[in-house]
Design goal:
44% of the residues lie in helices and 13% in strands. With 393 residues, it is an alpha/beta fold. Strands 2-8-7-6-5-3-4 form a seven-stranded mixed β-sheet, sandwiched between helices. Helix 1 packs antiparallel against helix 9. The longest helix is centred in the middle third of the chain and has 39 residues. The chain is globular, with a radius of gyration of 22 Å. The chain starts with a strand and ends with a helix.
Length: 393
């Protein structure tokens, strides 16, 4: 049975070039990058080369790149670090602005800040999943110390107006963070164009290894460290560097920079082929998210009368891997917070699938997946009392 992987927003396969680059630092150049001897300096050189590769991909200076364990740590470091370092001029509690459609790494961090007495405003999107920059502007207070808005939504793929918000924050002197985990390597990302002070990214979303990521911190941004220990990463993030992982991230970043346009064109064509096929061959389906402000690889679809979890399991038996939303929220019985924030009913949100394509998908993959989805939807709807009742109305 042919197998098709359409869950690239959860994780991507490691590129062969990345695995080859990492192998050397697992087998031969295994030194600690903080050691002064020959082995350590070989490792240090590799870390600094990777720092330059990541910086080039996002338009940053290498000294502004901190290596972390991934997107979640980078997000937490941004929220807790900026709030911890901020000294507001007023006696009011510090204030943070975020959105209702952020990844759990940001949302749960914001909720923890609230439990510590920090004020948090959650801006809601329009029905297409796009945040209005004016709503963010209206939420700014004198005690606001941080705004954090994701660049690309992990469930519906909408691209958020971070650059427009960046213009607001520069005027007000408020730090701006963006979770760009789903955007880096898929769409052009430049920290100066965006006007951000902090940006999170993760290797395993751009064909690198799991367990390593980076945080861009603009020069002059005050950040309190989450952990305390050695003087690694310019005193921002203590702990022995994961040299093989960092090398993998650097190699993945360089490949992404070289292939960005090529990958986007190919992936968008495959995504659009799949979307057109679903709309043509299946009744009562809805595409979620603003099609004009969407990254090229993500397709979120609601199938009336069905449960997303049932679709995922049935498609897996047909050889197609997909999801209902964020992998970090798998197992939750609640409908997607992203889709409900966009105004979908709980029933419609529970009927959704996220189909996310990647560099190694082909048109043949799309055709196999489409046939499987058509079969599964027809079979499950034939067994669904709720769909039969909807058809009778």
């Amino acid at each position: 049975m042919p197998r098709v992987y359409l869950d690239n927003n959860a994780t991507t396969p490691v590129a062969p070039e990345v695995a080859d680059a990492m192998a050397r630092y697992l087998r031969e150049d295994f030194g600690n990058a903080s050691s002064v001897h020959w082995y350590g300096q070989r490792a240090r050189d590799a870390v600094e080369q990777a720092r330059e590769q990541v910086a080039r991909l996002i338009g940053a200076h290498p000294t502004e790149v901190i290596f972390t364990s991934g997107g979640t740590e980078s997000d937490n470091m941004s929220l807790f670090g900026v709030v911890g370092a901020a000294r507001p001029e007023t006696l009011s509690p510090k204030h943070v602005i975020t959105t209702a459609i952020e990844h759990p790494a940001v949302l749960y961090a914001a909720q923890e800040l609230e439990s510590r007495g920090v004020g948090v405003t959650y801006v809601t999107p329009g029905s297409g999943g796009v945040i209005n920059a004016d709503d963010v502007a209206r939420a700014i207070r004198p005690e606001t110390v941080l705004i954090t808005v994701m660049l690309a939504n992990n469930e519906v793929g909408t691209l958020e107006p971070v650059a427009e918000i960046g213009g607001l924050t520069r005027e007000r002197g408020v730090a701006l963070h963006t979770d760009a985990v789903q955007a880096v390597g898929k769409v052009p990302v430049d920290v100066n164009t965006l006007g951000v002070d902090l940006l999170s990214l993760s290797a395993h979303k751009l064909y690198g290894p799991k367990g390593v990521g980076a945080l861009y911190v603009r020069k002059g941004t005050h950040l309190e460290p989450l952990m305390h220990g050695g003087h690694h990463e310019r005193d921002r993030r203590p702990g022995t560097e994961n040299v093989p992982g960092i090398v993998g991230l650097g190699t993945a970043a360089e490949l992404a920079a070289q292939r960005l346009d090529q990958d986007a064109q190919h992936i968008r064509a495959c995504r659009d082929r799949l979307q057109a096929g679903l709309l043509e061959r299946i009744e009562r389906v809805t595409i979620n998210g603003d099609a004009s402000h969407r990254q090229p690889n993500t397709l979120n679809v609601s199938f009336e009368g069905l449960k997303g979890e049932s679709l995922v399991m049935a498609l897996d038996l047909e050889g197609v891997a997909c999801s209902t939303g964020s992998a970090c929220s798998s197992g939750s019985t609640e409908p997607s917070h992203v889709l409900t924030a966009m105004g979908l009913s709980k029933e419609a949100a529970r009927s959704s699938l996220r189909l996310s394509l990647g560099r190694y998908n082909t048109e043949a993959d799309v055709d196999v997946a489409l046939e499987a989805i058509v079969r599964v939807v027809a079979r499950l709807r034939a067994l669904s009392p709720s769909y039969a009742a909807a058809g009778a109305r």
